[in-house]
Amino acid sequence: MAWTDAEGRLWRAKGLDGAEKLQLTPSEIEVFSAAWSPDGSRLALMARIPGQSWQISLINAAGGELKVVSHEPHNAADPTWSADGKFLAFGGSPDVMGKKSAPHSIELLELVTGKTSELPGSKGLFSPRWSSDGRWIAALTLDQKQIRLFDVQQQRWRDLASSSAADPVWSSDSKSLLVHAVLADQQPILCILVPSGAIQPVADLSELLRDPPNYFFSGLNPADQPIVLPRVGTSNLYTLDLPN
Hints:
The chain has about 240 residues and is mainly beta. The chain contains no helices and 21 strands. The protein has a domain of about 130 residues: Neuraminidase.
């Protein structure tokens, strides 16, 4: 498993007991997200030096040098692997995450050659997720109110579902896509069946909601059960008597 700490450093460990815990990225690098390669040997990162644009990088799970593989003039976000590990798909990030913005589309990066090309018909989409069987790429519209599905073999898009959505995650069998319905009441986690688009509620986490909502949908465990990260904070009010 891999995770980032409060300072944005990337860590990994074996299993859920934290065995062989290792810090993978140096303290001067900020990591927003990471995706395991299909063979488990590498991770693709959305990372940056603070103050610079987000880029896509690779790092070995055993540790080593961080290698930047995208060289976009704007933010590059949400790397996701092809089933054979030869390609990465990535999108743009919201403008609030950096000073540089650009039209949003999904890019394909061939790792052997380093060549990048735009996924046909992907303008206005972001947050791509490649299914583990390699058949589909899911992505969100910029208003986060619709999920679209790209058939890799037929090279065409279709509407999968109309629903509030963030942080999509494929099930291990590639038969469903789970999303966090961030704009819906109670912000549930939803399961969207593929390719039918039928929507099934998975979890109502209203007890974790505060003002503002206070949890992230962080992925699935090996049994395809949702993992959420609550954000717990405290605040206090004080008075101070100043001298005349």
